[in-house]
Amino acid sequence: MSRCRCWLWLCFVVFLSLPVRAASLAEGFTRLPEGAVVLLMPLDIELFSVSAGGILEPQAEWTERAHANLRQAFLTRSSALKVNFMPLPGEGDEVEVVESLNRLHGAVGQAIAMHHRGLFALPTKEGRLDWSLGEEAALMRARTGADYALFAFVRDSYASSERVAMMVVGALLGFGLSGGMQVGYASLVDLASGRVLWFNTLLRQSGDLRELEKARESCDALLDKFPE
Fold it and tell me: Residue 40's beta-bridge partner residues?
């Protein structure tokens, strides 16, 4: 399945599973202990334009800008939340582990968004946030000294001028066409155990990661009800 189709599928399952944005906590976890260090993992972000025909077209320049904006927004938010977000130290030997963990988080996050609650909820979970990234997470704890890690996954799209024109025509003819959509999730992971302690989803037709101030608002939405 192509990356664009995966993105559309994620929008669909999140929409069915979580009609409104909702943060969840793992059983027995309520807040971070005082002095905890939270490693800010590299953000998994990709931006698209929506063509006149509704095709998602990857935009590398927008994506690069979004990475910088959202990363700055997270680090700035750190002081407001009174949480010590630690940027990942130089890449060095951690590159392979970091990439592996980010891919794993992408897959686990999709599973949580789809199966935690809603139409596709797993009855064996009994409504509990009971997911893990496994023992590999401990490698980041050993290499960075952080206690926890914050992961974020975002796919964002924006209607092209041609798509906007088609939307206007559609409205005049009595049928609706969708524009862009912002979909994503964020997770707080215990690096000692790999356990996902907090999870929040984002699904909406607003937001713009290409501008710093608007990226700050998206950051706030992703960190809604963060267990500070």
Answer: 87, 150
Q: Does residue 180 contact residue 71 with C-beta atoms inside 8 Å?
A: no
Q: Which of 13, 32, 6, 42 is nearest to 152 (CA)?
A: 42
* Inter-CA distances, 132 with 24, 51, 215, Å: 14, 37, 28
* Spatial contact of 147 and 193, defined as CB atoms under 8 Å apart: no
Query: What CA–CA distances, in Å, run from 143 to 59, 134, 137, 146?
Result: 33, 16, 10, 8
pLDDT digits (tens, 9 = 90+) for 88-145: 876 555 677 788 899 999 889 888 888 886 667 788 788 889 999 998 888 889 888 9
The 3-state DSSP class for residue 225 equals: coil
pLDDT of 21-46, one tens digit each?
568 899 999 999 988 999 999 999 99
Q: What is the DSSP letter of 102?
A: H
pLDDT digits (tens, 9 = 90+) for 151-163: 999 999 887 667 6
Q: Among 172, 174, 167, which Cα is nearest to 205's?
A: 167
The greatest distance separating any two alpha carbons of the chain, rounded to the nearest whole angstrom, comes to: 60
Domain range summary for the chain, segments of one domain joined by +: 3-222
